[in-house]
Write a structure and sequence with these properties.
Length: about 450
């Protein structure tokens, strides 16, 4: 079956997957097709678009430049839990990104790409002493502290290494993010942050600790938010706290509104990044003029999904078509261990065949080879398929590879970045011997 450029192009543009954006822009120059990528690197493979990554990061950065007061008025700290391949981090660093990290391992990634620890904020509810020491030794910008015990531990660790830890408190504003319950984090019942009512007293306690320096305030209310109203509501609550703290003599330098802006998976209409940033600064700038005596405050963003989500697809090959009594299954070579989101959240990802066939479509569940009924990537999709077909699982750039596992001793997928008509392997496919290299047999 010949490679069908037109259908691929239509599929690609229809579903926002920008894998071959350059091909669409320069059809004569482009030589790359998903088939060639699969031939070169095999499947399953995550494929990211450099153009799309750049565009989404610059949507934040350029809007900040336009609306923030002065060059130092904003910092976009990419939440690398969404996708943390060194090549992606390096690209974003070169564009000016800081990083939001949640582990010592993620800090090691920043160091590995020559990132500036002064642009790193450390989130997460369970930082260990070792992680604190590592972050202090590199003088990171700020710890986002999530509890009183963490505050005391950080004070003790900072004291033991003769440092002061810059902190912000992650305040839980009790705002409903109106998203999937598993990725909603700003409600009272969630494990994250310090309760809004306890924030003032916790800041007072923080300010009295010798090795703690409160410099900011932080929140993150959830992920895949389509509407920015809950984020702006949370922002208003943080602004009130900044004012209340200033009245007590605790003056903060930055306000971190977290991540959370959603992407289009299926007919979703997320707020445009630039619009959201504009609205944030409309509030911030008005408040600075009227309440904050024009004093500068830096605004930080921690976006993850909105930067990488629609910049990546998962390329997979149909192994078998199985026609059951009540269902048709397309068994592909990617599985829940490669892309956990459907199994974990019943998440919907678009599925586009690279080659379109003329035979009538059937309704398929797209499933992997893993021994779990939960091992599915998509359900009830009208597709015309043949064995050996390549499928693009769309909007897979965020929380795809970073959540992958080796379940069933399956090596994790390869990762590739497409840059114009070039494809670069940025992570090799894992082979079985690498998977058990750290294991040993009893003597
Ligand atoms: N900051 C903090 C403190 C976070 O916990 C997160 C995401 C972010 C920033 C980035 O949020 P984003 O801009 O990506 O929405 N695995 C789930 C998503 C979990 C989000 C965890 N926190 C999924 O696949 O949908």
């Amino acid at each position: 079956m010949p490679y069908c450029a037109a259908s691929w192009r239509a599929a690609v543009s229809a579903v926002r997957c920008i894998f071959l954006r350059s091909r669409i822009a320069q059809p004569r120059k482009a030589r790359l097709s998903p088939i060639e990528v699969a031939k070169l690197f095999g499947t399953p493979t995550y494929v990211y678009s450099k153009a799309a990554l750049t565009e989404s990061f610059l949507a934040y950065a350029n809007a900040c430049k336009t609306y923030a007061q002065g060059d130092d008025g904003a910092l976009v700290c990419y939440a690398m839990k969404a996708s943390s391949n060194l090549a992606i981090l390096h690209l974003l660093k070169e564009l000016g990104a800081g990083f939001d990290i949640v582990s010592g391992g993620e800090l090691e990634r920043v160091l590995a790409i020559g990132g500036d620890p002064k642009k790193v904020i450390f989130s997460g509810v369970g930082k260990t002493r070792e992680e604190m020491r590592l972050a202090l030794s590199h003088d990171i910008l700020c710890f986002n502290v999530e509890s009183i015990p963490e505050l005391h531990r950080l004070n003790e660790v900072a004291g033991s290494v003769g440092k002061q830890a810059r902190i912000s408190l992650r305040v839980n504003p009790n705002v409903d993010a109106k998203t999937h319950p598993y990725i909603s984090t700003g409600l009272k019942e969630n494990k994250f942050g310090v309760a809004f009512e306890d924030a003032l007293s916790t800041y007072r306690a923080a300010a009295s600790l010798p090795h703690i320096h409160p410099v900011g305030i932080d929140c993150h209310i959830g992920s895949q938010l389509l509407d920015d109203a809950p984020l702006l509501e949370a922002l208003d609550k943080l602004i009130d706290l900044v004012d209340a703290l200033a009245r007590e003599g605790i003056h903060l330098h930055h306000l971190d509104i977290g991540g959370g802006i959603g992407i289009n998976y299926k007919d979703d209409e997320p707020v445009a990044i630039a619009k959201y940033v504009e609205r944030v600064f409309a509030r911030i700038n008005q408040w600075r003029l009227h309440n904050h005596q024009g004093k500068p405050i830096k605004v930080m963003f921690e976006p993850g999904r909105s930067i990488v989500g629609n910049a990546g697809i998962l390329l997979t090959e149909v192994q078998y078509l199985k026609h059951g009594a009540t269902k048709h299954f397309a068994i592909v070579d990617a599985a829940m261990n490669d892309l956990m989101r459907p199994a974990m959240y019943e998440a919907w990802h678009g599925v586009e065949p690279v080659v379109q066939h003329s035979q009538p479509a059937k309704t398929y569940d797209i499933v992997g080879p893993v021994c779990e009924s939960g091992d599915w990537l998509a359900r009830s999709r009208e597709l015309s398929l043949q064995e050996g077909d390549l499928l693009a699982i769309l909007s897979a750039g965020a929380y795809g590879m970073t959540m992958a596992s080796n379940y069933n001793t399956r090596g994790r997928a390869a990762e590739v970045i497409v840059d114009g008509d070039q494809a670069h392997l940025i992570r090799k496919r894992e082979n079985p011997s690498e998977l058990f290299a750290l294991e040993s047999i009893l003597k």
